[in-house]
Amino acid sequence: MKDGELVEEGSGKNALRSPARSLGELAAAISRQPDAEPLAAGELVSSGTLTTSTPIAAGQLWQATVDGLKLGGLMLQL
């Protein structure tokens, strides 16, 4: 939501068909790098955006909510 208006809705399938698959692909890519450290517990990994990227500007209020998971929403004002 931007300034209270819906901009776009997305799904986990938009990130390499699923966030879990994305994480698996990352782990596999790391394992092919001889000097790379493996993923560690507690590291944050982004599977990409679930919607198309949208330009932001100072003064706008952005809000994201997630359905189906017990997560609080995110609100950001620049």
Helix-strand layout with pairing:
Blueprint: H1 19-31, E1 61-64, E2 74-77
Antiparallel strand pairs: 1-2
Would you write up a description of this structure?
The chain is of the alpha+beta class and 78 residues long. The protein has one helix at residues 19-31; strands at residues 61-64, 74-77. It has a two-stranded antiparallel ribbon with strand order 1-2. The longest helix has 13 residues, at 19-31. It is elongated and about 45 Å long.
Strand content: 5-15%
Q: What is the arithmetic mean of pLDDT? A: 86
From the alpha carbons, calculate the radius of gyration and give it in angstroms: 16 Å
Give the uncertain stretches in residue-range form.
Answer: none
Tell how many strands the DSSP assignment holds. 2
Kindly, what is the distance between the CA atoms of the first and last residues, rounded to a whole number of angstroms?
14 Å
Q: Which geometry do the CA atoms define?
A: elongated
Number of helical stretches of at least 4 residues:
1
Provide keyphrases for this structure.
alpha+beta
Quick rundown:
The chain is α+β, with helices and mostly antiparallel strands and 78 residues long. The protein has 1 helix and 2 strands. It has one helix at 19-31, and strands spanning 61-64, 74-77.
